[in-house]
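Re-running the complex after MR caught last week's input typo. The corrected sequence lines follow. Everything else is unchanged.
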Amino acid sequence: MTIPTSSIEQVIPGQGSMAQPESGKPAKAKRQRFRFVSNRKAATGLIILAIYLLFAIIGPWVAPYDPGARGNDLVQPPSGEHWMGTTHLGQDVFSQLLAGTRSVIFVGFFAGIVATVLSVIIGVTAGYVGGKTDEVLSALSNVFLVIPALPLIIIITSTLENAEDWLIALVIGLTSWSWNARVLRAQTLSLRRRDFVEAARASGERTWRVIGFELLPNLTAVIASGFVGTVIFAVLSEITLAFIGVTSATTWNWGTILFWAQGQQALAQNAWWWFVPAGLAIAILGTALSLINFGIDEFVSPRLRSAGKTKLKTTAGQTVRMRIGFTPVLSNSPEPHTHARPTPVLQKEVAP
Amino acid sequence: MKYFLQRLAFYLFTAWAAITLNFFIPRMIPGDPVQALVTKYQGQLSSQAIDSLYVLFGLDKDANLWQEYINYWKQLFAGDLGLSFTFFPTPVSEIISNSLPWTLLLVGITTVISFFLGTGLGILAGWRRGSWTDGLLPVTTFLSSVPYFWLGIIAIYLLTGPDSFFPSSGGFDSGLVPAWDQYFIPSAIQHSLLPALTILISSVSGWILSMRNMMVTVASEDYITVAHAKGLSDRRVAMSYAARNALLPNVSGFALSLGFIVGGTLLVEIVFSYPGVGFQLFQALGASDYPLMQGIFLIITISVLVANLLADIAYLLLDPRTRKEG
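Corrected-run output:
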């Protein structure tokens, strides 16, 4: 549903993480192992994701109530007893949210893995082998790219009776690999004519070894960002399917909560606690994953990093705004300038 | 021209693939779905409908798969998508042709507005990096992660009510009959404002992000430095040099992400009970109305393909390099 936020396609590899600066003295070449984590966006995203993963594991055990158990307090606002209120059957919304985390995370990651594996196989093969194979595989991924994925997923899952989580994840994974395959193909194309790949081929390495040991390590960032993007899409799709009631309502996920809230007129009853937490949980998870993707993008292409403080004072007391890729130009006006312009002052000096 | 023909051939191929997929999906259902449906409707289905169901699900013992496939195509070219169960015996094509204009107007107009608005803001955010526009990014990230339908629910909760200007559901006042007159059109516009706003808010952020990143990448090209050195105004460099080049990947991105957007907007229709294709799909799902579901999938796919073709033509006009070939 969202547009893939990664701009990795446009980035030239070999300028970012992949270009390891060669240092004369090995002792000085201190490699920062966790440079990726030191990116503030990526770190925030990873921490939030870790919390979600934790609740995916322990959620059903720490939930204060059985998510399906009925109670006597019907449609109650949040209180000390029910932190996020109750539903029309007296079920505890907080417990449903906790118990649903596992299904959401499972489907997201499983679909992400399926789609990533498929996209690596198809994208890298198309890019590396080329020729007729490339044409066929590219046409295949373009077809899947253009066909609207969500309606297709809805149609397929609606024909499956009471689909389990893994089956839904499989359907989502099988239909959403095409974007990553396209990006990977473009990257492979630009990598395959590089010297180190040619050298590996010339020294007689087998195709699978060239792909596995020369190409794939250089594609890590692209693959990772594609994986994260697919997880976002898969989570949104699963919740959507549950929300419109296509999948069975017996396993809890956040979409199921919203399904019941919508079906039982939670809006008309002013029961905001019924649908607000689930939506926020989705939005925060999505934001965390997008942040990780920004981190990967900025890691690969340092240009995209936020510029930070850009206004500087020169010794002459003028303010200059620094911008990456621009040469700051000083003029006589106190306003910050970053481009040259014919200064009228100069002409005045000539005139008299 | 060669480029255009290539694209056209590709879309025809995709349409064929989608139709073939649509043909095979109901044949994957295990068991006898027709019998299940007949039991479910308890004699409400006529024998003619049951026969057509068997043909639809590929359970017609008299015909082999290839013949069925040929028949399917013949039916399609005749504009026959079968009969709907929910609105029996209305043909699916009639239901879709009633609801399609609603979706096309709502989604079409909002998507185009969202593209231009997002691209404009993206140009600004990419060009003026390090200023207040950087604050746009966290907000847009959050908004693009929110599911469309949930935003719709929140909009209904916050903005509608007995005395509110915004109606909470439907496409027009229940007392009106669809017509091109002074009563119906204002009512239809009033009803579409909130769904349109929801789609706009959640889809605009994607354009902002991709345009910003492209602007940042383009801004360090040599021709931008040259343009600055020539003493052109900042505005001119930003619009005619940077933005024009940054726009191209965004236009092709527009075509590719249409499928995602359409999927999301269908859900907004469901939340607002808007009389478009998405709401029909929702009703069809609830009633296991397979002919209607498949018809809607087909129409959505073909609409997206046509929109893609239009985006390709726009690309052709924007990028002279594609015109030179052939």
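None of the earlier attempt is carried over here. Residues 98-322 of chain B form a domain with the MetI-like fold fold (CATH 1.10.3720.10). The longest helix of chain B spans residues 234-272.
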